[in-house]
Structures are given as C-alpha cells and as structure tokens.
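Q: Given only this backbone (92 positions), what sequence would you predict?
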C-alpha cells in the first residue's frame, strides 16, 4: 500500500519534487539489516518503515514507533502529511 500511496496523484508530485525514493528489500528479516541499524529503523516495530536523509546523507528522521506498519488501514493523506512535513525547503 505504501508504494501505491507514494505514486498516487496527490503524493507523486511531492515525492518527485523533493525526494529520491529508495526501496530496501529486507527479505524475511535476513537482508540489508545493517542499513536499518545504520539509520536507526527498528524493524521489530513492523514494516514498511521509513527514514528520511538530507541531501548530504545525514539522517533527518527515522521511524521509531511503527507509524506506517498498519499502512493497509491508513489513508493516502497520512503519507501526504508525512511528505509535506519532510519536504526539503528547495522543493516548495
């Protein structure tokens, strides 16, 4: 659902204007776990999980509380709100 919401008509322009979306496959919790650890994403809280990096790779936000783990029950507007909050200043 998260991927669908990233690409819907309301969110895609925000994403395209200020973000580079990188999907990380964690397999069955047995792949790329080092990236989750590096960026402080507690996968035990559920997936999908998000981190936001700045233009120089610095961590700006790491989802700590499983905010998107119940994506099937959230609306696209929840992702819109998230993207608007973290939209880079130059993308406004």
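A: Predicted residues:
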């Amino acid at each position: 659902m998260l991927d669908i919401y990233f690409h819907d008509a309301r969110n895609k322009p925000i994403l395209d204007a200020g973000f580079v979306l990188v999907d990380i496959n964690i397999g069955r919790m047995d792949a790329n776990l080092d990236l989750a650890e590096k960026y402080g994403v507690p996968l035990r809280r559920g997936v999908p999980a998000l981190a936001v990096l700045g233009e120089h790779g610095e961590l700006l936000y790491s989802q700590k509380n499983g905010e998107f783990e119940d994506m099937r029950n959230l609306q696209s507007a929840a992702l819109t709100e998230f993207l608007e909050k973290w939209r880079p200043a130059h993308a406004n």
